[in-house]
């Protein structure tokens, strides 16, 4: 007999799974487990989860609002794109601590828990303006 969960229950289950994964990653790091060559350690796994969570918080509201999901139909091209995104995420964390990265994942998960209404307004894209200190001659 299968059990059907409500959307709220699914979101709660997802959040609980993320919290448990953070606990496991923290315990693994405390035991000295780290990344080795091409194998990810706890920090990289949590960064991967946080990165994809950030992407989901941008994509899912738009999809719910009617945008077609952006998916690559070709399996090889999809794999290359996923590898590129994963590499970018892990590269961008730099030397940040596991605790910092866990905080990013926890905050993004909390945002998903509080933003359950699919009718919420899609936020506009933010633009960053860089100022330069140029001397005028």
TrEMBL record:
It comes from the Bacteria. InterPro entries: DinB/YfiT-like. This is DinB-like domain-containing protein.
């Amino acid at each position: 007999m299968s059990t059907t969960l409500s959307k709220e229950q699914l979101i709660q289950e997802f959040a609980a799974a993320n919290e448990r994964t953070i606990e496991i990653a923290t315990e693994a790091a405390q035991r000295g487990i780290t990344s080795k060559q091409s194998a990810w350690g706890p920090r990289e796994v949590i960064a991967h989860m946080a990165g994809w969570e950030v992407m989901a918080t941008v994509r899912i509201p738009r999809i719910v609002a009617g945008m077609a999901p952006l998916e690559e139909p070709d399996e090889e091209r999809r794999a290359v794109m996923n590898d590129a995104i994963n590499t970018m995420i892990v590269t961008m964390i730099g030397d940040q601590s596991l605790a910092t990265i866990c905080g990013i994942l926890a905050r993004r998960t909390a945002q998903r828990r509080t933003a359950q209404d699919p009718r919420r307004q899609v936020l506009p894209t933010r633009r960053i303006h860089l100022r330069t200190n140029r001397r005028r001659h």
